Amino acid sequence: MPEPETPVSFPSTFLWGAATSAYQIEGAVREGGRTPSIWDTFSHTPGKTAGGDHGDIAVDHYHRYRDDVALMAELGLTAYRFSVSWSRVQPTGRGPAVQVGLDFYRRLVDELLEKGIKPAVTLYHWDLPQELEDAGGWPERETALRFAEYAQIVGEALGDRVEQWITLNEPWCSAFLGYGSGVHAPGRTEPASTLRAAHHLNLAHGLGAKALRSVMPARNSVAVSLNSSVVRPLSQDPADLAAVQKIDDLANGVFHGPMLHGAYPATLLEATSSLTDWSFVQDGDLETIHQPLDALGLNYYTPALVSAASNAPDGPRADGHGSSEHSPWPAADDVAFHQTPGERTEMGWTIDPSGLHDLIMRYTREAPGLPLYVTENGAAYDDKLDADGRVHDPERIAYLHGHLAAVRRAITDGADVRGYYLWSLMDNFEWAYGYGKRFGAVYVDYTTLARTPKSSALWYGRAARTGVLPPAAQD
Ligand code: GBH
C-alpha cells in the first residue's frame, strides 16, 4: 500500500483515542471483593493460554491508573475506551453492586475528565462472572437478563460523567470463539450453542441499551462494537460467492441483522437449519434487539478470504481455530479460508488498510446516518527495549498511518467517522496468546511493569495534537 505524500488531516472534532479492556490490563483480580470471571478460570486451566499466562497481575492498571492517565494526557490523546469488569461490580453476576468496584471506575473517569480525555465505557469485554457461566453462560437467556441489570447499575453510577457507552465488545468472539472453537473462555466446543449464545448476546445488547437509557441523561450515546469482518471471495465463481454470503452472515449479519434491521438474515436461518430451529428467539426479542443506536463501533484488524471448500486445492482450512481442531464457524464445513496475500503482523494477520475503508463504507450503506467510530485497530510486533531505553516500532507507525489514511479516505467518500481508538494503549494480556504478543503503543516491561512510550505512541500523539498524520517514515 503506497503511502500518500500529501498531508492527511482530520476534522477538528475527530477523537484520537486508545482502547483497553479490564481483564487484559487491570490485575488485582482478588481485590475489592472481585470474584473470578470466565477468563480467570480459563487462563488458570492448563493448556488454554500460551505459557499458562493469566491476568492476575496483568499490567497492574488497577493500582497504576493515575500514571496511565497522566501518560495518555502527555501523549496528547483525546479519548480513552476501557471496559468495566462485571465481577468487580457484581461479583456473582446478580444482586447488589459492590461500591468499592464502582468507585475504582469513578476515580478513573474523574481522572480522565480532569485531563480533558473523553471516556468511552464498554460494559462487556468477554469477562462473564464465573457464576453466570456455571448457570449455563451465554447460551442461556437468563444471562441476557442479568446483563441488563448490570448495565443499569453501571449506568446509574457513571451516566452523569460518561457520555459514550458501548454495550458489548465483539459479540462474535464471545459466541463463536467461546462456545465454538473453544480458544476463548469458557472454552466450550458446541456448534449449536454458538447461535444460542449469539442471540442472547444480541438480546443482552438490546436490554442493556434500554436499561442504560432508562437511567442516563438523554445526551449520552449508546453503541455496540462489532468485529465485523470484511469477507472477500477467492474468485467470482458462484460457489465462492455463496461461501462469502455464508461467512458474512455468520460473522456480521447474525449481529447487525437484528440490531440494525430487526431480523436475522433469511440466508443465515436457512444455512444453520440443520443445527437449530432458532426457537430460542422469543416473541418481542427482535424488537428489543432493534434499539435505535446512537453510534456503531467497528473493530478492524485484517480481512478474510474465502472460497467453497471444493475450490480449495489443499482442502478446507477454517480460520480462527488457533490450537483447536473445532471450527468457530457452525455449519460451514463447505467453506475454506485462505491466507490473504501481503505483509503480515506478528499475529500472522495480513496488513490491508483497504479493508478498513471497505468496512466503513459498507456500514455507511447498511446504516445511513449512523455515526461510526473505529473502536479498535492496531498491530502486534516483536518490540524490544533498546539499550538507550527506547522502543522503535516503525512497522506499527506504518500500520497506523495506512489505516488512519484509509479512515480519512472513507470520510472523504461520505462516511461519518467521528473517532479512532488505537488497540492498544499499552502492551497487555493478549488472551490465548498471553503476554507474548505486544499490541501496545506503550511498551510494558513485564518484570518491572515500567511503561515506555514506543515511537508509535509519540507519532500517534503528534497526530492527535495536530489533527494531521505525520509522515510514516518518522521514527
Ligand atoms: C480484539 O479481538 C479484542 O477486542 C481485543 O481484546 C484484542 O486484544 C485485540 O483484538 C487483538 O487481538 O483469529 O485468525 O481467525 C480481535 C479478535 C481478531 C478475531 C481477528 C478474529 C480473525 C483472524 N479477532 N480474527 S483469526
From TrEMBL:
GO terms of molecular function: beta-glucosidase activity
Keywords attached to this Swiss-Prot or TrEMBL record, sorted alphabetically, are: Carbohydrate metabolism, Cellulose degradation, Glycosidase, Hydrolase, Polysaccharide degradation
Catalysed reaction(s) here are: Hydrolysis of terminal, non-reducing beta-D-glucosyl residues with release of beta-D-glucose
The catalytic residues are: E376
Task: Indicate yes or no for the key word Nucleotide-binding.
Answer: no
Matching InterPro entries, A to Z? GH, GH_1_N_CS, Glyco_hydro_1, Glyco_hydro_1_AS, Glyco_hydro_1_beta-glucosidase
The record's EC number reads 3.2.1.21
Region annotation Disordered: where it falls in the sequence? 311-330
On whether DNA repair is a keyword of this UniProt record, the answer is no
Pfam families under this entry? Answer: Glyco_hydro_1 (PF00232)
Q: Where is the signal peptide, in residue numbers? A: none
Family label: Belongs to the glycosyl hydrolase 1 family.
- What is the protein name for this chain? Beta-glucosidase
- Name the species this protein comes from: Streptomyces broussonetiae
